[in-house]
Amino acid sequence: MSDTAPNTRIILVSGKGGVGKTTAAAATAIDLAARGRRTLVMSFDVAHSLRDSLGLGGFLQGAAHGAVSPVTDNLDMLEIDVSKEIEAEWGPIYRHFSMLMSHGGLTDVLSSELAMLPGMEDVSALLAVDRHARSGEYDALVLDCPPTASTLRFIGMASGLKWYANHRLARERRMVRMMRPLASLFHGEAYYLPADEFFAAYEGITARLDAVEAMLRNPEVTSLRLVCTPEKVVARETQRAFMYFCMYGVLVDQILVNRVFPEEDPYFRQFALSQQAMIADMRDWFAGVPLTAVPMLEEEVVGPEPLARFGARLSEGRDPGAFYRQDSPITVTEEADGWRFAIKMPFVGKSDIQMSRQGEELMLRVGTFKRHISIPSAMMKATRTQAAMEGDTLVVRLSEG
Ligand SMILES: Nc1ncnc2c1ncn2[C@@H]1O[C@H](COP(=O)(O)OP(=O)(O)OP(=O)(O)O)[C@@H](O)[C@H]1O
Ligand SMILES: [Mg+2]
């Protein structure tokens, strides 16, 4: 593995709101720690409930909030606090924004105010993943992700920022360099222009985000466990989520169907039967992806022991650190006259997909989500781009026109 892919295994847990993501993430982390893996379970949902799920008590987290805290042997937890992440990571950018804002009449700009800027949560979470994956302190990171749409935004964030850095930032940096002497003539100081160190820091952060995005899309490092319940509406969202994760190049290696009612219960029998029919459909839709059904339990799953039992149901005897499936959603192969990109995109038709080639990038858009895929420089001469659906796979061929 390259240095962008440290030996830390990353497991993402996502799914619709309320289906059991935090519980599944905490249970997976407890299972890994019990097997001797040094594990960090982290959540970056603003409404954190990881601490409650682990049964750690405390109404508010106090000083521990935003800091790594120990849970059991081999297990630490972290509920990300965006302001603290900004303080830790965003020094030069923070200084720039505080200078800008204090110039506009605000005297004391806090990181909590910067934390409200759009995208800041995702960027902070990505940087935290990068830092802990690289620290050498953990064998595994388990991420309790926010509901699906936010997880997708989080994963797509790095490529969006990179696009900005590549297309705009370099030009702006040159412009600001030219303007600085002029501006200082008029005002004595040019401090409201971004300092050069701002651009350097921004580029540094963009490079790190790029590396962490590559980790999340590396099927030898990261896989995602998609949690759902056996109801039509949830199942539909799970289909869409699965398709989008494929489009972003994230390997989904388990579908977890949670809260399945037992058939024996006479009162819920009809309900249980319709759930079973739904599960059978899901096995068809997600053929090739291991599907694990977990029963509705009589009690909430809170605290290390209930979580350990829950973890055993999730892993069904497997090592939760293993890849339950190894099938990269995106493959690139060289052909006689060019290159072939195969992007698995199930459940959508060709008319749902917009694709365009913009110089060194392929842009894919489905619904509100888009993804920029960089074309390696070796392929830049291949200017002819053709796309077709082959089964559930979008095949894009690049060849010299
Ligand atoms: N199979 C189950 N049987 C009984 N209770 C469960 C089961 N799975 C989860 N729970 C309980 O359901 C509640 C919600 O679960 P959890 O917090 O894991 O959901 P979530 O997907 O993380 O929700 P959110 O989207 O709000 O973050 C918790 O109290 C949890 O203990
Ligand atoms: Mg949760």
Q: Within the CATH hierarchy, at the fold level, what is the topology of the largest domain?
A: Rossmann fold
What is the name of the CATH architecture of the largest domain? 3-Layer(aba) Sandwich
- Count of alpha/pi helices: 11
Structural class by SSE content: alpha/beta
Strand order of the largest sheet: 3-4-2-5-1-6-7-8
Gyration radius, rounded: 23 Å
- Bound small molecules, which ones? adenosine-5'-triphosphate, magnesium ion
- Average pLDDT score: 85
Shape: globular
Q: What are the low-pLDDT stretches, counting only 5+ consecutive residues below 50?
A: 1-5, 103-107
Distance between the termini: 35 Å
Structural write-up:
With 401 residues, this protein is α/β, with parallel strands linked by helices. It folds into two domains: 1-327, Rossmann fold (3-Layer(aba) Sandwich); 330-399, Immunoglobulin-like. The protein has helices at 21-34, 50-53, 82-89, 91-103, 111-114, 120-134, 148-187, 196-216, 232-247, 269-285, 304-315; strands at residues 9-15, 39-43, 69-72, 75-79, 140-144, 222-228, 252-260, 291-295, 330-335, 338-344, 353-358, 361-366, 369-374, 384-390, 393-399. Strands 3-4-2-5-1-6-7-8 form an eight-stranded mixed β-sheet, sandwiched between helices. α6 crosses α7. The chain starts with 8 loop residues before the first strand and ends with a strand. The model is unreliable at 1-5 and 103-107 (pLDDT under 50). Bound molecules: adenosine-5'-triphosphate and magnesium ion.
